[in-house]
Task: structure prediction
Amino acid sequence: MKSSQTGSKALALNRFSRPGTGEPLSAGDGIPWEAWLRGAPAEFGVHPDGFAVFVPASDAAGAAQYEEEDSYKVAGSIESPFHRRRFEDALHLLRKTGVTGPGACIIDAGCGEGDLTEHLRRAVPGSEMWGFDSSIPAIQEAVRRFEEIQFAVADAHSIPRPSGSADVVVCTNLLEHVPSPVRLLSEFRRLLKRDGYLILSTPSRFRFENLLRSWAGLPVVFMSNLHVTEYTVDQVVELLRFGGFRTVCRLSTPVTPAEWSWKWRLAKRLLTWWMRRTHSAHVLESTVFFLAQVEPDSPRPT
Result:
C-alpha cells in the first residue's frame, strides 16, 4: 500500500463514531486484525489493508452476497445499460440537491467496490466522500482502486458516522435486500442534516414484464433470489414518509433490451402512453430512483 493512502486511512480511524449512537471514536478504539479475528472486544478491527471493519469477522454474509451476485461487481460490466443508467440517474439527482464541495459530506451506503462512489466524488470536487459496505472483499477492492474516498466495512443499519453529519446519503439497490426497510431509513435519517437529501434506488415491482404477468394472473418475478421483496413506487413513497422523508421526485431512464422484437417495443410504448394518460404511479423500467429530503419536523432517531 502506498504511504499516502496509509496516512489517509489512519486519519479516517479518528473520524468514526460508535454505530447507532454517533459517539466519537478514536484510533485507540480499534484493534489489530488478528485480535479482531479472535473475537477480542473492541469497537472495530483494523484490516491489514488499512480500513476499519465494524462487522464481526466471522460474519460472511456480505462476502457471500458479493460472490453470488454478479451485478455487485461493477468494474467488469460498467458499460452495461444497467450501470450506465444507475450512474447517470444518481448523478442527475445529486445535481438536483444543489449540494456542492468543498465541505459537502456524502455517504454511499452499500457502496460495493466503490465505482459509483468515485463517480459521484468526481462530480462534487472537494467533497468528503464515505463508502460503507458489509462485504470485506468489496471494500478491499474499493480501497485498492480509489484512494480519495474513506471506505469501511459496516452494516448499513449501523453506519459509524456522527448523527446529522451528512448532506447526502446515497443508497442504490439495497432496500430490496433488507427485511427491515424502515430501520434502514431511520439510520439514514439519523446521519443526515436537517435539510439533507437521500438518493435511493430499488427495482420497480410492476416493471413491464411483471405488469404483463400480473394482468395474466401470474406471480411477479424478482430480479434476484437475494431480494427479500420488491416494491411498487407508492410503497417506496410510503416507506420514505414513515422514515421521516418527503419524496421530491422520482426518475427512471428508459432502457429497452437490444434483443426485444418490434412487437415488444411497440407494446411497451403503447403501455407507457396509457399509463401517462391514466396518471399511473407504476414504472415500467427495471429500476426507479427516488430523491427525498428530510422532513425537518420529523423526530430524529436516537
